[in-house]
Design goal:
Elements: E1 3-11, H1 15-27, H2 31-34, E2 36-39, H3 78-84, H4 88-94, H5 101-114, E3 119-121, E4 126-133, E5 139-146, E6 151-159, E7 179-181, H6 185-190, E8 199-203, H7 207-219, E9 224-228, H8 241-244, H9 251-256, H10 260-270, H11 280-295, E10 302-304, E11 307-315, E12 318-325, E13 331-336, E14 338-341, H12 351-360, E15 364-365, E16 378-379, E17 382-385, H13 390-393, H14 403-420, E18 424-425, E19 436-437
Parallel strand pairs: 1-2, 1-6, 2-3, 6-17, 7-14, 8-9, 8-14, 9-10
Antiparallel strand pairs: 4-5, 5-6, 11-12, 12-13, 15-19, 16-18
């Protein structure tokens, strides 16, 4: 077993913590940046690797990269990446604000490789985080345990691990070889033999489900896909310029300071801007594919709306899904060979955060305006949560829109904390903050 100390440990090398690493290099190039470590459980940096489909585009402008909204002159910008790899002229000529998803992923890997002060280590899977206290009970740091048995002690901890994958209960008993969540689509489909006439059920009515419904027709050429959703049909995102202003970093202050009922209204009305919708190009492509399928009489494609999957079981060499019509209550069976889940992520705090909350004796998880976890008693250490604070910081919290400015705010808070020194209490939760209950494990 190995143990080491760092001043700041960031868990996860996704966009959130890469933006933080860049902010540390640019704003705190001395002791804090060189004393910081980012760990990533995978062997490389990739953005949504399970859905790196050839034609998929980002839904966010390239200007909302890891740095531009904080520092437009940064060498870590997406524009500088394009220049470095010799593709700037071609990208300009395409005339789009929205890069391909594979470009964003490559950009993130380029940023990771370009870090010169903050260290980044791969194949480091975190299994638990424990608080460290001195003899008087003051919180002094964090002990992070890794899967290889090693430990890392840090004064500052930043968790940018994303939310846990959501597998609906109806599918929990199915064998893993039968079920593919969207986060593993590319890897799992590549393992399957191509010429088999698979019957494929795709579950969900959002962008991920629609993309898999489209992609599987190419990836498994002889398949017969059925798209099953609870909604009345596929819908486009609501993306007016007025609602898009709620994705501005400047909108966070107004949301954080709003009353609970106002927050709920905003999140409810903004739901269709990010969830359960499709970009217009995907929607148009799917509709044309369905039209041609009907026109030619192939009957290969099927879309089932307003149905719940109420049970799923394996029967001999196939999967049997029970579908319940939300309009009539009647049920029917859908027999298939493979289930693709576009069911998103669990809305609760990730398991690693819940485990830390339990170790701290917290009944709920609360963060302040600068994303700092509220802990009881005096403390000379701090933990920050990235990408899981939609309830307190708004609809854009988990998206690329927020990365650059949020990294700036967290870095500034840490620098201020280091300058102040000495213990202080973080138990008091700001009156505007939301306490998120910690469910039992």
């Amino acid at each position: 077993m190995k143990h080491r100390d760092v001043e700041l440990l960031a868990i996860g090398a996704g966009p959130a913590n890469l933006a933080l690493a860049v902010a540390l290099e640019e704003l705190a190039p001395g002791g804090l940046a060189t004393g910081s470590l980012v760990i990533e459980q995978a062997g490389t940096v990739a953005w949504q690797p399970g859905m790196l489909l050839p034609e998929a585009q980002s839904q966010v402008s390239f200007l909302k990269d890891l740095v531009t909204l904080r520092n437009p002159c940064s060498r870590f910008s997406f524009v500088n990446y394009l220049h470095a790899v010799g593709r700037l002229s071609e990208f300009i000529n395409v005339g789009s604000l929205w890069p391909y998803r594979i470009e964003i992923s490559d950009y993130l890997a380029w940023v990771a490789d370009s870090l010169s002060r903050v260290r980044l280590e791969y194949n480091r899977r975190c299994t638990a985080v424990e608080p460290l206290r001195d003899a008087e009970g003051a919180l002094t740091g964090w002990l992070t345990r890794l899967a290889d048995g090693s430990t890392i002690r840090s004064r500052y901890l930043v968790m940018g691990i994303g939310r846990d994958v959501h597998v609906p209960e109806a599918f929990a008993a199915l064998p893993a070889r039968r079920v593919v969540h969207s986060t593993r689509y590319v890897q799992r489909i590549a393992e399957l033999p191509k010429g088999v006439p698979y019957r494929v059920a795709v579950i969900g009515g959002g962008q991920s489900a629609a993309e898999m419904f489209d992609a599987v027709q190419r990836d498994l050429p002889g398949c017969q896909p059925t798209l099953v959703m609870r909604s009345i049909g596929l819908k486009t995102y609501e993306n007016s310029k007025f609602t898009n202003e709620l994705y501005f970093p400047s909108a966070v202050d107004a949301f954080f300071g709003a009353r609970q009922e106002a927050r709920r209204q905003i999140l409810d009305e903004m739901h269709i801007t990010n969830y359960s919708g499709l970009n217009p190009a995907t929607l148009d492509k799917l509709y044309h594919a369905l039209y041609l399928d009907r026109l030619t009489g192939k009957g290969r494609l099927r879309v089932v709306t307003m149905h719940d999957v109420t049970s799923a079981r394996e029967d001999s060499d196939e999967v049997v899904l029970e579908l319940t019509d939300r309009r009539t209550g009647e049920t029917e069976e859908l027999r298939c060979d493979l289930v693709l889940l576009g069911t998103g992520f669990v809305r609760a705090m990730p398991g690693l955060v819940r485990g830390l909350a339990g170790a701290l004796g917290l009944e709920d998880v609360s963060v302040n305006r600068t994303y700092r976890l509220a802990v009881p008693g005096p403390a000379t250490a701090a933990c920050y949560l990235q990408g899981v604070n939609e309830a307190t910081h708004g609809i854009a919290d988990s998206l690329l829109s927020m990365q650059a400015v949020r990294a700036w705010e967290i870095t500034a808070d840490i620098l201020a904390d280091r300058a102040e020194g000495g213990p202080r209490s973080l138990a008091a939760v700001p009156s505007q903050a939301v306490a998120v209950p910690v469910p039992a494990n």
